[in-house]
């Protein structure tokens, strides 16, 4: 119970001194009695061979000692601030006294040591150090720490090894080794970890003391150099000794966690080799992860990650004992799996740099090891060749993993038609790879990632080969091996994550991994064509590789040339699935468009680019259009025939055609200007032989595609094809100069308006069509298109038989007034603004629509009115228009009362939009409001009444905040509006008299203060005269609060 109390005590500035005294007293009394009944440690050296000794009391003493050290360390953090806040940082470091500081504690002064029981504490520290030193001198530890254990682990099969050292082939050397007793291992490990935490604090203060001393000696004018160097060596040796001790304890803690919790049951079940405790020895290691990693090396990180991935990918059922197989107790098994899952979901785990530097490499190695163990050939298992990791020297394994593309290709050739044994190990690999693909690991941009990329690509080649073998069997389809399909899909995601973070050297540009990467990914798309997610992940990887080729284009243009040549072969391959082919090609061409846009934004500040890849882009796109145009037309012609798959393929084909035509239109003129640049290399010059006739021939298909896209009714199409059609129209509108000879801008404009109207009726948002309309309005022929838009919309709206939705007219009007960019367009729009204003007001008169539709109409009205009110050059409103707007919004708020609509979100949106319109009117038309204040304050009274009827669950806070903003805008005009505020105040006082919710009263206070600030003494007396005595008693506290906290009284 005392240990539980110590673990849960929270140290702070008020109790730190008492807690420190408690820890020091408990160490010298309770702990020493538990460890040795005579009061002192009988011997500081651990003796082996006491297997029959009762270790329970000693284990409890070590546990108590560890938690007392932890509490004492936390108390020392606050101790000096509690004694004297004025002490400088260096002095605080010197005054801190830690438990178990030892003779070489570094920062403890002599006076503090004399106040402690030096004999007992030093003996306790000596005991821990001796146990650690003896353990670290055993053959078992040397095998574990020397690297042979890791090499053996990676080469062994998963059925014969565990995370521990047992089962690794070294048992014959470990029978009589000196080792801590099993009952004390957990306690000794926890004490060591607490000691590491204490050493971490001691090292911090020692470093500050050393830095302070260095600065003080550097500031001295006359100091003997030899004496100075001697003092510096002595000071720095103090912190160095602490660091070395911390590193030794990290070795001990990780070794105990790796090797202690193993149960080995002999085949005859007569004797038990080792007994495991019911507590996980990895749990304290995880709890101290952020501390001990400061004193670890890559070996410790690799051992920890092996345990992490082993626990993370375990299935829910516990493995049973089977012969010589090793496993953890059920309780420990469940605890460690829970710990690993919690650690994987902890964001701070991914900030530990020492672990994350090896996270991806160890994870891939672990998955490969599990995967190789499940491969079965037609022959017996013994005929399986050893993993290719045996052919890689240890240095290569330390850098990038034991699996590479070359070794994978060799292994696939040897395996032939091998398949997987679909058991738990495949599930483990799937879990690990999926976790690596989704883990938020921020890889550093470095050259070491190239070895990691090589390992992942090699693993992907092997897993894809095995999956292809499964697909060849008629009795097994890809759907029967979801784990295998998930492995291949996740590998592609990992590749796409690693490529942008890989820094290539000049020698790496010709590596086999890069040369075969693109071909492997392209080939995989055909195999994975039945899984859309897998194809998309492959396309992402190809796109990232394409970006890498562009980044290194100046150093090695052959990378991009080879990739585009492979892509051209893919386009020309008639046996390749068209949907996969179109998806891959579109992903690459889309990256070309992105690169062009980034280049065009910076081309004004850059000199002539002597190695521009635009010619290669154009050549590839023209070849693609030449080979795929017929297929695109065929799929587009079959749209709407009732087959959903055809519509999806047609949507993919249309997106590909849009990207290709957009790129041709963007860079054709640029390449014609730089075509005769003689500074280009022969390879580049031969690849960009492009003529105007080829460009014209490739773009003749635009009219046919445009006809197929616009003729069919949108209601008969799938949502995917509608989105693709919108994207095609927006791309056409973005470059009207390039296609003006094929499709006239007016025809394109009418089709965009028609598509937008149909989409709005069906309730679909069309940002692409809105962007297309804005592009046409801002074009060089924008004036004529503006006139066409106005005539089309208003003429359709005036026809009774074919009445256009007011929402579409209002939306088009909003786009016109926001996108018009010259005086002629403004003049054209200004002549029709009053007509558009009346149509916009019609949006508020439809009371039969649903709440969601009403909220959408009010949002559109608010957005349009706010833009129109701010543009006085288009329409200068008078009192008539302002009164009309306020009067039309007034019944809207009354209709949207709390008893009519229960949707708090939509009701709050309607209220906020109305407040935005009123705020714009007050800001831009204050003088016009002077002539019609009754309409304004009638609407403000409606808003206030609505708030008074609104509960906290109906958006009270948001509505009160919006109303306060409107009231504060009235304060500069109080000389005109002050007499109209009386009605609002009387409505508020009546609500007080009827009984107002305290929440409503507090939320309305800012608005009431703003209204009272507008009242002069006359209005105040008028309010006081118009209310009865009970109302006066209720309003008096509000008025006093206003005068105390809000009213300005001067300096």
Automatic annotation (TrEMBL):
It comes from the Eukaryota. Coiled coil: none annotated. It holds the Pfam family Urb2. Residues 906-1051 form the Nucleolar 27S pre-rRNA processing Urb2/Npa2 C-terminal domain. Signal peptide: none annotated. PANTHER family: UNHEALTHY RIBOSOME BIOGENESIS PROTEIN 2 HOMOLOG. This is Nucleolar 27S pre-rRNA processing Urb2/Npa2 C-terminal domain-containing protein.
């Amino acid at each position: 119970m005392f240990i539980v109390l110590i673990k849960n005590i929270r140290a702070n500035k008020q109790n730190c001194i008492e807690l420190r005294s408690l820890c020091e007293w408990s160490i010298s009394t309770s702990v020493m009695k538990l460890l040795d009944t005579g009061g002192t440690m009988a011997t500081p050296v651990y003796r082996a061979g006491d297997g029959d000794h009762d270790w329970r009391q000693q284990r409890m003493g070590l546990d108590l000692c560890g938690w007392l050290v932890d509490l004492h360390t936390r108390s020392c953090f606050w101790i000096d601030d509690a004694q004297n806040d004025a002490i400088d940082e260096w002095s605080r470091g010197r005054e801190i006294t830690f438990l178990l500081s030892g003779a070489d504690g570094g920062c403890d002064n002599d006076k503090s040591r004399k106040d402690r029981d030096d004999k007992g504490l030093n003996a306790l520290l000596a005991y821990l150090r001796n146990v650690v030193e003896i353990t670290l001198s055993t053959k078992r530890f040397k095998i574990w720490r020397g690297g042979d254990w890791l090499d053996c682990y990676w080469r062994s099969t998963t059925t014969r090894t565990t995370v521990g050292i047992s089962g690794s082939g070294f048992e014959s050397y470990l029978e009589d080794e000196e080792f801590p007793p099993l009952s004390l291992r957990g306690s000794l490990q926890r004490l060591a970890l607490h000691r590491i935490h204490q050493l971490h604090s001691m090292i911090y203060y020692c470093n500050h003391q050393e830095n302070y001393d260095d600065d003080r000696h550097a500031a001295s004018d006359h100091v003997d150099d030899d004496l100075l160097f001697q003092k510096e060596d002595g000071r720095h040796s103090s912190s160095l000794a602490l660091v070395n001790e911390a590193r030794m304890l990290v070795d001990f803690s990780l070794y105990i966690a790796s090797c202690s919790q193993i149960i080995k049951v002999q085949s005859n079940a007569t004797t038990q080799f080792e007994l495991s405790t019911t507590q996980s020895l990895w749990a304290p290691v995880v709890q101290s992860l952020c501390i001990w990693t400061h004193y670890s090396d890559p070996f410790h990180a690799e051992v920890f990650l092996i345990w992490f991935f082993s626990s993370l990918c375990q299935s829910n059922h516990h493995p049973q004992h089977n012969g010589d197989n090793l496993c953890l107790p059920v309780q420990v098994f469940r605890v460690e799996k829970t710990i690993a899952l919690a650690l994987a979901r902890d964001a701070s785990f991914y900030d530990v740099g020492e672990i994350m530097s090896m996270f991806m490499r160890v994870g891939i190695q672990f998955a490969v090891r599990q995967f190789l163990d499940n491969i079965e050939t037609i022959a017996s298992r013994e005929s399986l060749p050893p993993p290719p990791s045996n052919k890689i020297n240890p240095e290569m394994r330390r850098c990038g993993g034991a699996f590479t593309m070359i070794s994978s290709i060799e292994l696939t050739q040897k395996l032939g038609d091998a398949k997987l044994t679909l058991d738990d190990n495949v599930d483990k690999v799937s879990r690990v790879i999926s976790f690596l693909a989704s883990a938020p690991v921020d890889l550093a941009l470095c050259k070491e990632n190239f070895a990691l990329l090589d390992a992942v690509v090699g693993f992907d080649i092997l897993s894809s080969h095995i999956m292809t073998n499964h697909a060849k069997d008629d009795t097994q389809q890809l759907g029967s091996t979801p784990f295998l399909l998930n492995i291949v899909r996740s590998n592609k995601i990992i590749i796409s994550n690693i490529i942008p973070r890989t820094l290539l050297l000049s020698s790496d540009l010709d590596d086999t991994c890069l040369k075969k990467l693109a071909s492997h990914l392209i080939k995989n798309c055909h195999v994975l064509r039945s899984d859309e997610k897998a194809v998309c992940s492959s396309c992402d990887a190809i796109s990232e590789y394409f970006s890498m080729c562009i980044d290194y284009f100046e150093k090695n243009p052959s990378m991009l040339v080879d990739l585009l040549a492979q892509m051209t072969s893919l386009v020309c391959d008639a046996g390749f699935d068209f949907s996969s082919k179109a998806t891959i090609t579109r992903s690459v061409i889309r990256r070309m468009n992105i690169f062009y846009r980034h280049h065009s934004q910076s081309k004004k500040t850059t000199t002539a680019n002597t190695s521009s890849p635009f010619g290669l882009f154009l050549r590839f796109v023209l070849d693609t259009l030449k080979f795929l145009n017929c297929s695109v037309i065929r799929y587009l012609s079959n749209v709407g025939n009732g087959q959903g798959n055809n519509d999806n393929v047609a949507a993919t084909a249309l997106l590909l055609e849009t990207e290709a035509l957009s790129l041709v239109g963007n860079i054709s003129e640029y390449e014609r200007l730089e075509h005769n640049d003689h500074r280009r290399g022969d390879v580049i010059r031969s690849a960009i032989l492009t003529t105007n006739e080829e460009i014209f021939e490739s773009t003749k298909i635009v009219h046919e595609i445009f006809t197929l896209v616009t003729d069919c009714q949108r209601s008969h199409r799938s949502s995917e094809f509608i989105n693709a059609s919108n994207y095609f129209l927006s791309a056409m509108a973005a470059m009207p100069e390039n296609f003006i000879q094929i499709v006239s801008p007016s025809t394109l404009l009418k089709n965009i308006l028609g598509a937008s109207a149909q989409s709005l009726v069906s309730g679909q948002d069309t940002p692409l069509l809105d962007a297309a309309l804005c592009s046409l309005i801002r074009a060089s022929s924008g004036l004529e298109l503006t006139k066409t838009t106005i005539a089309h919309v208003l003429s359709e709206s005036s026809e009774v038989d074919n009445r256009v939705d007011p929402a579409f007219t209002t939306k088009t009007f909003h786009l016109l007034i926001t996108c018009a960019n010259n005086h002629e367009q403004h003049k054209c729009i200004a002549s029709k603004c009053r007509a558009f204003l009346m149509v916009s007001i019609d949006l508020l008169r439809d009371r039969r629509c649903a709440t969601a539709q009403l909220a959408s109409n009010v949002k559109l009205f608010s957005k349009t009115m706010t833009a129109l009110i701010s543009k006085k050059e288009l329409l200068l409103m008078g009192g008539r228009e302002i009164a009309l707007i306020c009067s039309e919004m007034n019944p809207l708020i009354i209709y949207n009362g709390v008893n009519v609509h229960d949707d708090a979100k939509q009701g709050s949106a309607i209220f906020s939009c109305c407040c935005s319109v009123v705020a714009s009117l007050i800001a831009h038309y204050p003088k016009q409001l002077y002539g019609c204040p009754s309409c304004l304050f009638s609407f403000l009274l409606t808003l206030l009444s609505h708030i008074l009827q609104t509960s906290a669950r109906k958006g009270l806070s948001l509505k009160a905040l919006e109303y306060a903003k409107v009231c504060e805008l009235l304060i500069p005009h109080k000389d005109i509006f002050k007499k109209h505020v009386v009605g609002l105040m009387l409505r508020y006082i009546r609500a007080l008299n009827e009984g107002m919710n305290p929440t409503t009263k507090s939320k309305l206070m800012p608005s009431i203060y703003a209204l009272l600030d507008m009242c002069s003494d006359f209005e105040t007396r008028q309010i006081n005269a118009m209310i009865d005595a009970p109302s006066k008693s209720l309003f008096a506290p509000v008025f006093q609060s206003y005068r105390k906290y809000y009213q300005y009284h001067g300096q």
